[in-house]
Task: inverse folding
């Protein structure tokens, strides 16, 4: 297979791709920020709880 055929096939496949709109990207970005914040808060709470339990056991 030569290079021009490969480039043609790549362009053909790229034309089938549906790119997200700005609104969809913004919505996904906000969802990721919310999920990361909730997970970080949960892990901080678990860390606080575990450290207080270990301090109570050792202290």
Result:
């Amino acid at each position: 297979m030569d290079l021009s055929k490969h480039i043609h096939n790549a362009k053909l496949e790229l034309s089938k791709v549906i790119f997200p709109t700005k609104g969809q990207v913004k919505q996904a970005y906000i969802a990721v920020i919310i999920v990361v914040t909730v997970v970080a808060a949960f892990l901080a709470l678990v860390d606080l709880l575990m450290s207080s339990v270990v301090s109570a056991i050792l202290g």
